[in-house]
């Protein structure tokens, strides 16, 4: 029998920790690239389209995860008595806008979107590995496999 989903503060804390780690890793990657550019100059830094593609994909995953976390937070607040007026005030939108955005369970589609993005990235990395262009990609793939939920 499948386990029933429960929207709890413990689950939110875990989601926030995961999101924070992803942001820290992305920032570290940017700092490393910036240091290489400062040290060796832009031409020698060797920032290729693969690196930028990785950053874009990671940023997209982080944005989708943050959006899902916001939906979970609103659901938890509503379940504990917060009104739509108060939710709207906190978000800086109208009550109607808040209700339309968070009334349904569209967050599951956001979770699916995150999974699809990760699957696309893994497939692309595997194709590169099979083509023999896999030095940096192997390290990225190993990180992704360890981060798999």
What does the model show?
This protein is an all-alpha fold. It has helices at residues 9-40, 49-79, 84-91, 95-102, 107-130, 135-146. It is elongated. The two termini are 20 Å apart. The model has no long low-confidence stretch (mean pLDDT 76).
How many DSSP E strands? 0
Average pLDDT rating: 76
The H/E string reads HHHHHH
Estimated share of beta-strand residues: under 5%
Report the sheet with the most strands, covering strand number, pairing sense and barrel closure: none
Poorly predicted runs: none
Q: Structural class per helix/strand content?
A: mainly alpha
Question: How would you describe this structure in keywords?
Answer:
elongated; single chain; 149 residues; mainly alpha
Give the gist of this structure.
With about 150 residues, this protein is mostly helical.
SSE topology:
Blueprint: H1 9-40, H2 49-79, H3 84-91, H4 95-102, H5 107-130, H6 135-146
